[in-house]
Amino acid sequence: MALTMKKIDAIISRYEKSEESLLAMLQDFQREFHYVPEKGMKRLSEILSVPESKIYAMGTFYKALSLEPRGKHTVKVCMGTACHLKGSGQILEAIERELGVKRNHTTVDKLYTIESVNCVGACAMSPVVVVDEDYYGHMRPSKIMDILNKYK
Amino acid sequence: MEKVTIIINGREVEGIKDQSVLEVARENGIPIPALCYHPEVTTSGGSCRVCLIEAHQGGRMRLVTSCNYPIRKGLEIKTDTDLVRRIRKGVLELLLARVPDSDVIRDLAGKDGITEPRFFKDEGEDNRYKCIACGLCSLVCEEVVGVCAISMLNRSREKAPGTPYHKPSSTCIGCGACVYACPTGAISMKDVGATRKIWGKQFTMITCSVCGIPYIPEAQVDWIVKTTGKDRAFFGKCPDHR
Amino acid sequence: MEAIRSFEQLEQYRERLKASENKDLPTVMICFGTGCQANGSRDVAEAFRKEIENQGLKVGVQIGFKTTGCHGYCENGPLVALRPSDILYLRVAPKDVSEIVEKSIKKDEVVDRLIYKDVNTKETIAQYKSIPFYKFQKRISLRNIGNIDPTSIDDYLLHDGYKGLAKALTMDPDAIISEVEASGLRGRGGGGFPTGSKWRSCKAVPSDVRYVMCNGDEGDPGAFMDRSIMEGDPHSVIEGMIIGAYAIGAHMGYIYVRDEYPLAVKNLQAAISTARDMGFLGKKILGSNFDFDIKISRGGGAFVCGESSALMRSLEGKVGEPRAKYIRSVEKGLYDKPSVLNNVETWNNVPVIIFNGANWYAGFGTKGSKGTKVFSLVGKVNNTGLVEVPMGITIKDLVEKIGGGVLGGKEFKAVQTGGPSGGCIPKALSDLPIDFDSLTEVGSMMGSGGIIVMDEDTCMVDVAKYFIHFLVEESCGKCTPCRDGLPRMLNILNAITEGRGKEGDIETLQELCDVLTYGALCGLGTSAANPVLSTIRYFKEEYDAHIHDRKCPAGVCKELITYRIDKDACTGCTLCAKKCPQECISGERKQVHTIDESRCIRCGVCKDVCNFNAVKIE
């Protein structure tokens, strides 16, 4: 996803030009570029006449947005209550061990970013791990590497 | 401007409908401590929770922040009950544990009998210098000054004021309103000669043509001229010598 | 797409749909809720599509096909329901598809291995209505889910869709509010505030502009009711909002959907679009004088945005920080205008309340809590899924009759209700009827309807720690008690679960709880004490064991347990030793292995890989 002003403008033009659309625009940046680029925020500030400081504050407040580029694949461990009771804590630790980074960090080869997320609503399959848009249920520490290797 | 009479600590006092309890109390010489509220900043208040009082209305009692609780007919306020003191103590203890270096907090907590909090800074966090994350600095910049150079960033314990990307601010005009508004003096502004440094940015100050003392950043003058159309020459002299 | 401009035209259109419907056409209904999709229902659907095409082309047999919203029996997905036989097949895989078509669609046979089998009695049941999970439910909110294709407005119309709206538009707006008041409907999002009363207060505030909003932020972990409704029956929410807007005089509505629910956003957006095309949204709805439209707003991953004032700030394009609610949002809400914010499930009930009447709705439930409630039954329970029951069902009946009892035959310990704002209710109170007031009385609350079942292997101190940890991360950071108090509570709970608890810790926790309850700015903070206080109230002995004896009776808290290999069960297969990340398991092949406790980090891998259940926790 090359970071071009053209792409940024294309995303902005998807929505009504009002402050109400800010979060949606920021999230589209996130989906397109795997983070919210400074260039994008500055452009939004220009076009919507909203101070950059306010947009930046949103970038730091909403967990769905990241200011640093995320890895090619995001590995999300669901920390919902049902998942917690069935051992999501141990799953997260196992993933951190296997990939060598803590949650909210990206592996050195920029392939994976580990995150812990709030309940994804698939509680019947707990513990759940979501890699990109793929859901994996009934996770166990021993299954982790097989799944992660699929994305190499 | 409908007048309303309410009762504070057994005493009848008069105010205007929807005026805050804190303002009415202060107008009537009744002391309530407060930190994050500033009368010139309408969006301020509700953050530090130091100004909590008991509000009795419609048969219900609850603890509310006096700085933004609107007075309405039938309201009775108690500012000094056991509950108020107990909860306020709890709030101040948390604040003192957060910023033990702040004299303002230490004094306020001391008045409620708290000298040493039970929670210590070695419990895995830095001690935030003197910032209590009340947000007044960013609210002043937005509402009163109109520049919006800083904003409150992050969530939970990490909440703190800052500039975009923590880079030297591109929009700050160096007026120092945030510094003056901060209840604990947590923002650093350094004036050395004709230079001011704040939010990572250096400002050149205009020197008064009469007394020769640097007194206002050029950038601030630019902003005032731009937004009000005032004549630049007006700022050649400092307020004492105009 | 036909634009409907009058009530008569609507009914004519509906009659035409009914006439062209072939009720006898054998149809395959595949659950396409997020849960089943994650479990592979897309592949099953693909297999069915191919098989149905084959049957049509080669054998000339016509078979209908529909993907629907969540059937609710999530534990046993992918779910496939057949019409008109009403057979429900569980855990269907692509390889089962041709057999299902041959036996159950072309003939009247049942594929035994795929139907429900009672875990205890081994009884098998093919008809979904007779399965205990469904038998005891009363599906009002979930009336359409699993029966309709959520992407088809025609299917919604075939199932009485927009009948409520048509009736409402002939009523006086005040009469609509009275009807909702009389029904006894209380907010389904957690607050339980009487809905009709909220609408009436809003309407009474003089203003040219008003808003209605739908809270689809469903942040309680373990709750996915709203997700299923938004995904599986989006028009019901839209219809409810149009009726509400008409009643209070709003012309603009918003649905705020959690970012983590992409399918809900997609289905809602499509539904809004078709509703607009057909004239249910926009100008002069159904030929009346009423204009109304809806926009969707996506959340950004912040639990606090489920709080009403924070939601409105987020909708406005700002940081989602709550504000003091001394002036309520029915007076000054979105953009400081009088606003009504209701939960997804609340809105979805409105059309049927208007169409069937308040008395009908008030016939269900208890005195103080009318109607039904959708619950997500999750955790250590056999039948994890979504259920809808009349208010007043006891905890015991919910967990045993519908839930099928505790997983693995373990001992039932407690249920947790209300998410991070709620509390734990112990086994001793399992005859408690579930309704708004009874739950609050025992120190919990209804919340959005998440019911987490806990067993003997659940550590209640760990549960308190889990919720406080959740809240520490989700706190917006604006007020002192929440921002600075919750981390102190977490430190104490961490100390207790790590064996560093001391005398006085419980009292300090209780003091901090009070500071939060009385001093916090918003509901997140003022209810944060519930998980801690309710576990201290009902499970004090567990806290004492952690603090005084340095033991975790449930075997959960890592620093207080040891992993040990049972010498009678170990076969010496060496698998655990090979997988142990600490390399601290020793033993010869075919000899009993041992764990070096001093290096064990209690990661759980050995227990996970052992095929002989030889790893024990003490």
What features would you describe in this structure?
The complex is a heterotrimer of chains A (152), B (242) and C (618). Chain A has 152 residues and is of the alpha+beta class. Chain A has two domains: 5-61, no CATH class; 73-149, Glutaredoxin (3-Layer(aba) Sandwich), CATH 3.40.30. Chain A is 42% helix and 12% strand. Chain A has helices at 5-12, 22-33, 38-48, 52-61, 81-85, 88-99, 144-149; strands spanning 73-78, 112-117, 129-131, 134-136. Chain A has a four-stranded mixed β-sheet with strand order 2-1-3-4, covered by helices on one side. Chain A is elongated. In chain B, α2 (82-98) packs antiparallel against α3 (103-111). In chain B, β9 (195-198) and β10 form a beta hairpin. Chain B is built from six helices and eleven strands. Helices cover 24% and strands 21% of the residues of chain B. By secondary structure, chain C is of the alpha/beta class. In chain C, the strands form six sheets. In chain C, strands 12-11-15-13-14 form a five-stranded mixed β-sheet. Chain C is globular, with a radius of gyration of 26 Å.
Quick gist of this model?
The complex is a heterotrimer of chains A (152), B (242) and C (618). Chain A has helices spanning 5-12, 22-33, 38-48, 52-61, 81-85, 88-99, 144-149; strands at 73-78, 112-117, 129-131, 134-136. Chain A has 152 residues and is an alpha+beta fold.
Give me the oligomer status.
heterotrimer
- CATH top level of the largest domain in chain A is Alpha Beta
Find the structural class of chain C using helix and strand composition: alpha/beta
The CATH level-2 architecture of the largest domain in chain C is identified as: 3-Layer(aba) Sandwich
The percent range for helix content of chain C is 25-40%
Uncertain stretches of 5 or more adjacent residues of chain A: none
State the shape of chain C.
globular
Largest sheet of chain A: 4 strands, mixed
